[in-house]
């Protein structure tokens, strides 16, 4: 502040000196302006006097001219007088002319002087006015600057005075707070010493108990820490599943394009340079075509392996390279496809060379074939690099020592570079194939089938190029996410030790998730124990009785089915008997035609009996069945309106039918009782077996409960010790933090006091 005030004062003095100089210059210029105004007024007065004198001379000249004209007029009248006086007038005229000439010259000279003086005065006045305006603006600016500076200086002085007063008050309060803090620090130090002594003794006791009771700490050992479940990152898992889905779609596109490319290449080999439909192709091309025909068995597994890899990445799993076991299968499928490419590469190169040796091949077509020759070698080399890096990524799931975590980023970067190289090679292949197809169309023996096959190859190569470009850009854009998300592990550990530990960790994670789900389920309403036992007994007995009743119903249904079959049988027998009766009646009509009355009586009796039997059978079908058995044996009651013989037979029949119904009812009652007793015996046997099982389970639960009680007592003791240790550690950390904060406040207060002292000085 003092340096600022000193600078402001020095600037103020310089500005004051400049303002005084400008004021002196403006005063001198004003005096010069006054003097110029006075000289200008004098010149104006002289000018006015000259113009007045000039006007007088002009009037005098006019008068003289008038007199001359009068004298000439008089001279005509008296020539003599004129001649005598002509000499005198001539002399006067010459005198006047000379005088007039002198006045005219003097007037002209005065006019010139006046004009020059007027012009000089105007120019000088304009210069002085412009300079005066500039000086006035400068003076106004300087005055405004001076006013602003004086105002600013006054404000800063007032502000500094207020700040000084505030700082003095603040320094006094800080000094008081510093004194209080010193007292508090002394008290805290004393308390800290006491707490350290107490906590030291308790810590020794706790360590002794921990060493005796606690078996081990699993986080200290990397082998055991690898079995701990890491923190679940659901967002990371969803992102990885989304990325795996995108990669699967790109792989499906590449697989489709590769299938089309190999298939159309096979068709091309059979068409050009020799068409297999008209002539036999070379053994080399036959073998090459045979190998190309097997492309689906090598290309399709790539899509299946990627699909299995995508299905293995779910929301509930922990996706790292140690747990992605399906990546090994995808690497094996890629290795098999690489073997297929290596197998067909020599045949493909030899086929191109054979095509170059053909008579139909031109120089330009030969050059394109040699370019494709180089491109196919590069394509196989790119797939070899991709297989190398993918197999490296699959190593952590089988042999973790084969690839360190520090090299993950290097492997992912090289995969991205290989994919970009794959895309560049496919672009070159597409370019060279398009040129080759255009040259082959110009061959005179080119057919429409060859042109169509070339178009199909070009479309498949274009699809391959697009798919490879999408895959390369996708992998490059998500390279950082792959490097970071696929390399995390348990808390406190750097990595998983082995795939077996990762698999065990996933099993523990599933168990923990199931346990958490079971905790989240709402507890059902509890039932009293005695009521639950009674309900259980009722349930068991009801299930047993239900099984017995089901068996009884099944038996009853079987009996009903048998009775229905017998009923159908007897219905058929009744119909046959009726038919026989009609035949016998017809015979009686023919044989006993003489005895009309007897035949009429017999004819009237027999239909009545048949109709009566028919009516009784219909009534027996329509009337409800009177039975107490489950088999529903019918007891039919008929009216006796026949002769004595028939009534006696009907009585015997009804008696036996009633007896049969009674016996069947007793039999069914005995069957039902036996079934019931059998069901009761089964229920009792089952209850006995359940009671024995419950007794065994209760004994086992009793043993487990006793073991849990002993273990819980030990864990409770350990937990108490750990809680006391943690509480003491928290108190120590709080005291140390409090002391650090108090020391920081003291240092800040001292610095502020020092700055205030420096400012006040």
TrEMBL record:
Nuclease found in the keyword field: no
Keyword terms of this UniProt record: Coiled coil, Endosome, RNA-binding
MF terms (GO), sorted A to Z: RNA binding
Protein's cellular compartments: Early endosome
Signal peptide span: none
Domain Protein phosphatase 1 regulatory subunit 21 N-terminal as annotated: residue spans: 4-100
Highest taxon of the lineage: Eukaryota
Any one GO CC term of the record: early endosome
Coiled coil: 26-74, 132-198, 546-598, 681-715
Statement: the UniProt record of this protein carries the keyword Cell cycle: no
InterPro entries tied to this protein: PPP1R21, PPP1R21_C, PPP1R21_N, PPP1R21_six_helix
Matching PANTHER family: PROTEIN PHOSPHATASE 1 REGULATORY SUBUNIT 21 (PTHR21448:SF0), SMOOTH MUSCLE MYOSIN HEAVY CHAIN-RELATED (PTHR21448)
Protein name as annotated: Protein phosphatase 1 regulatory subunit 21
Organism: Vidua chalybeata (Village indigobird)
Lineage, highest ranks first: Eukaryota, Metazoa, Chordata, Craniata, Vertebrata
């Amino acid at each position: 502040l003092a340096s600022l005030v000193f600078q402001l004062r020095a600037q103020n003095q310089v500005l004051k000196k400049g303002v005084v100089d400008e004021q002196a210059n403006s005063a001198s210029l004003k005096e010069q302006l006054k003097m110029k105004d006075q000289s200008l007024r004098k010149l104006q007065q002289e000018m006015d006097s000259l113009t007045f004198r000039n006007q007088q001379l002009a009037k005098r000249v006019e008068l003289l001219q008038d007199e001359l004209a009068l004298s000439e007029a008089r001279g005509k009248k008296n020539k003599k007088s004129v001649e005598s006086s002509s000499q005198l007038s001539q002399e006067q005229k010459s005198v006047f002319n000379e005088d007039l000439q002198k006045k005219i010259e003097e007037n002209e000279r005065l006019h010139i002087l006046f004009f020059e003086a007027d012009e000089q005065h105007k120019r000088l006045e304009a210069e002085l006015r412009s300079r005066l305006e500039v000086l006035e603006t400068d003076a106004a600016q300087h005055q405004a600057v001076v006013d602003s500076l004086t105002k600013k200086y006054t404000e800063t002085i007032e502000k500094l005075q207020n700040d000084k007063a505030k700082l003095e008050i603040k320094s006094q309060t800080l000094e008081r707070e510093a004194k209080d803090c010193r007292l508090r620090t002394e008290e805290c130090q004393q308390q800290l010493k006491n707490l350290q002594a107490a906590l030291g003794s308790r810590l020794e006791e706790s360590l002794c108990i921990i060493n005796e009771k606690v078996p081990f700490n699993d986080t200290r050992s990397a082998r055991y820490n690898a079995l701990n479940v890491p923190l679940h990152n659901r967002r990371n898992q969803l992102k990885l599943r989304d990325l795996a889905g995108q990669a699967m779609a790109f792989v499906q596109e590449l697989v489709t394009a590769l299938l089309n490319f190999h298939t159309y290449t096979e068709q091309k080999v059979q068409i050009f340079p020799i068409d297999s439909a008209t002539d036999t192709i070379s053994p080399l091309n036959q073998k090459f075509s045979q190998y190309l025909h097997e492309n689906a068995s090598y290309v399709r597994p790539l899509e299946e392996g990627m699909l299995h890899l995508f299905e293995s990445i779910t929301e509930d799993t922990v996706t790292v390279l140690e747990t992605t076991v399906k990546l090994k299968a995808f690497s094996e499928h890629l290795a098999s496809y690489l073997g297929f490419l290596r197998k067909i590469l020599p045949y493909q190169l030899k086929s191109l060379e054979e095509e170059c040796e053909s008579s139909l091949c031109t120089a330009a077509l030969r050059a394109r074939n040699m370019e494709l020759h180089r491109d196919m070698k590069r394509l196989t080399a790119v797939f070899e690099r991709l297989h190398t890096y993918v197999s490296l990524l699959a190593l952590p799931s089988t042999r973790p020592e084969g690839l360190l975590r520090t090299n993950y980023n290097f492997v992912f970067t090289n995969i991205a570079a290989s994919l970009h190289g794959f895309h560049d090679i496919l672009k070159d292949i597409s370019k060279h194939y398009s040129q080759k197809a255009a040259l082959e169309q110009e061959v005179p023996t080119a057919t429409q089938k060859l042109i169509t096959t070339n178009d199909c190859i070009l479309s498949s190569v274009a699809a391959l190029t697009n798919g490879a470009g999408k895959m390369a850009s996708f992998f490059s854009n998500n390279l950082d996410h792959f490097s970071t998300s696929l390399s995390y592990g348990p808390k406190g550990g750097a990595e998983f030790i082995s795939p077996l530990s990762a698999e065990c960790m996933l099993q523990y994670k599933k168990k923990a998730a199931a346990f958490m789900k079971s905790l989240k389920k709402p507890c059902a309403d509890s039932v009293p124990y005695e009521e639950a036992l009674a309900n259980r007994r009722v349930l068991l007995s009801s299930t047993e009785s239900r099984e017995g009743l089901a068996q009884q119903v099944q038996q009853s249904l079987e009996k009903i089915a048998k009775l229905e079959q017998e009923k159908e049988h007897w219905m058929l027998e009744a119909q046959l008997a009726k038919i026989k009766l009609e035949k016998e009646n017809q015979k009686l009509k023919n044989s006993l035609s003489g005895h009309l009355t007897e035949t009429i009586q017999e004819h009237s009796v027999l239909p009545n009996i048949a109709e009566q039997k028919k009516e009784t059978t219909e009534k027996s079908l329509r009337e409800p069945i009177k039975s107490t058995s489950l088999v529903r044996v019918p007891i039919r009651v008929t009216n006796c309106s026949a002769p004595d013989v028939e009534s006696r037979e009907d009585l015997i029949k009804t008696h036996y039918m009633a007896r049969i119904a009674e016996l069947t009812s007793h039999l069914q009652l005995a069957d039902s009782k036996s079934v019931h007793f059998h069901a009761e015996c089964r229920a009792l046997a089952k209850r006995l077996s359940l009671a024995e099982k419950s007794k065994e389970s209760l004994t086992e639960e009793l043993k487990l409960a006793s073991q849990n009680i002993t273990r819980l007592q030990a864990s409770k003791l350990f937990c108490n010790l750990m809680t006391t240790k943690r509480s003491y550690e928290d108190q120590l950390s709080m005291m140390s933090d409090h002391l650090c904060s108090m020391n920081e406040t003291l240092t800040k207060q001292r610095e502020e006091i020092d700055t205030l002292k420096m400012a006040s000085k």
